[in-house]
Each structure stands twice: as C-alpha cells, then as structure tokens.
Amino acid sequence: MILQRNNLPNIDQVSEEMSHMLGDYNASEFRQFFVYYLQCQAGAKEFSTKLENLDSEFEMLDNHNPIHHMETRMKSPQSLLRKLTKKGYDFTFDNIKNNIFDIAGIRVITNYLEDINTVEKALTKQSDVTLIKRKDYISHPKPSGYRSLHLVVSVPVFRADGPVSTPVEIQLRTVGMDMWASLEHKLRYKTNVDKKKVEKYGDQLKDYSTELNQIETNMQEIFNNLQHK
C-alpha cells in the first residue's frame, strides 16, 4: 500500500514569486523557467507512476510491498535562489537547468532495509530511466548520522514539441531513517533554541541513528526468516 503525499506549490504562486524575483523586464527568462518547472513537475509524476506500478507488481508476485509511502515535492523559487547563491551562480534559467537537478523530488519510504536496494534496481534498470548521480548515505552516513540513498535520475517527458529528458531527485530511506531525519531536522532547525545548545546533543542524536539502524537490521532478519518456508 502506498500513501502518496504531495507537496506541490500552486502554479499561480510560483508565477507570482518568479515575476517578483526576475522582474517584468525578463519575460523571456521567466517563460523558459516556467515551462521547465512544469516539465520537472511532469517528470515527478512519471516517476511516481513507475514506483506505484513496481510496488503493485511486488505485492502481486511476492506478497510484499517494499514501499511504505511516498512524498513528492517541488522546490520553491526562493529555495532555488538560495541553492544557486550557495553554489555561486546568478539566478538565470541556464544556471538553473545546468546546475540544479532536484527541482522535483520524491521521497520513497520503504518498509525494510533491503527494500531500498530492491526498488533502486527495479527502477534504474528500466530502459527509459537514466541514472545521473548516486550518493549512498546509508553505507556512508553523514557526520550527523543522516542515512538515505539519493539518486538523480532522468526520464523522458513528452511535450508538444517531443520528448525531453528531465531530472528528478529520488531519496530512498526506511521508515526508521525517515523518522530520525524528520525529528533531527526539527530539533536542529525548527526550534527557537541557540544552535550551540542543540549541538551539545549531536553525538546523542548520531548514536540514536546507529541504534535505529541496528533495530532495522534485526527486523530485516526476522522478516527474512519468516519468508523461508
């Protein structure tokens, strides 16, 4: 079973934000971005459909759903501006298209650890899917304790003038990893507490990530044992 959660901005809102940031004088630049933004949104929908179909296939053939739920999101113009600025680029359409590959993103939450590898292999071996970038924060967690598999993949999006390869970021993580990442983010960035005070708990939060990973490893072993008849 997949519970699809969408975090997609209103197109009118995007239009208003972009007009404010680019100005009326740059109508051509705005149009290019707006068309590309919709293209990325369509790319996310393509991958959402692929993932739902894969999950249904595994349920039918193996009596197991690897995907617990999915969350789809689109970067806001403000978020794009912050990322471009951090990378040292001006806010132009070419800089966005050539340097930002996660305008559209899907977070795939799996039930078990091995489901991550299962979903990745099934998705990336499809003939119309191209793997652009892969970052494995599960085998090599971030210093904070963050664990997840990040993929940038592309798929053809069919526009009026023909198919266009479109990148989408897909994050694969377990229920436990997602719970830890969500709460850790809230503790670090969503509280009105001095950051130095929060940092005092950094090692403790990292230890909890390790403990959760061990629990999920044990749960995976139990699941595997139950599958053996």
From TrEMBL:
Residues 72-195 form the RelA/SpoT domain. InterPro entries: GTP_Pyrophosphokinase, NT_sf, RelA_SpoT. Gene3D superfamilies: Beta Polymerase, domain 2, Nucleotidyltransferase. Pfam families: RelA_SpoT (PF04607). One of its GO terms (biological process) is guanosine tetraphosphate biosynthetic process. Keywords: Coiled coil. Pathway: Purine metabolism; ppGpp biosynthesis; ppGpp from GTP: step 1/2. The keyword Coiled coil applies. The keyword 4Fe-4S does not apply. Residues 198-225 form a coiled coil. PANTHER family: GTP PYROPHOSPHOKINASE YJBM (PTHR47837), GTP PYROPHOSPHOKINASE YWAC (PTHR47837:SF2). This is GTP pyrophosphokinase. It comes from Secundilactobacillus silagei JCM 19001. The lineage of its organism: Bacteria, Bacillati, Bacillota, Bacilli, Lactobacillales.
